[in-house]
Amino acid sequence: MKSTFDLNRVGDQWKYRLDERAFQDLSAVDYQGPPALLFVVKVPEDRHQYVLPPSGDSTGFRAPILWVSLEGTDDGVPRKETRTISIPCTNILTAEVLDAQYEKAAQGFTPIVPRQTGGGL
């Protein structure tokens, strides 16, 4: 899970700069374990805009959480520090999405990997 205010929207995708080591870990195809997902919390620059006082039934967090599977997306071209990945704007984490991903992992299925356009990640 990463958090950032530095997301750029391009069409129907969010562009996020992910460090190379994290990308390598998340893009590896590992049929022995559960699928790895990247969660990106899109926060405002001013942290006071997204944290509420905690209550008994809530974490108090109200920033959107985006998700993407990078499994199998490595193009084999090493980067020195970071690479830009695309996250579909529709990939907002909800309880239903989390339940569905959990069920897929429990059944041995991998999440759907969005097709990248524009010459790579």
Structure description:
The chain has 121 residues and is an alpha+beta fold. The chain has one domain (2-107). 17% of the residues lie in helices and 26% in strands. The chain contains two helices and six strands. The chain has helices at 20-27, 95-107; strands spanning 2-4, 8-10, 13-19, 37-42, 65-69, 82-88. The strands form two sheets. It has a three-stranded mixed sheet with strand order 1-4-5, with no helix packed on it. The protein has a three-stranded antiparallel sheet with strand order 2-3-6. A hairpin with a 2-residue loop joins strand 2 (8-10) and strand 3 (13-19). Pfam families: DUF4365. Residues 11-100 form the DUF4365 domain. InterPro entries: DUF4365 (IPR025375).
Which helices and strands, and how do they pair?
Elements: E1 2-4, E2 8-10, E3 13-19, H1 20-27, E4 37-42, E5 65-69, E6 82-88, H2 95-107
Parallel strand pairs: 1-4
Antiparallel strand pairs: 2-3, 3-6, 4-5
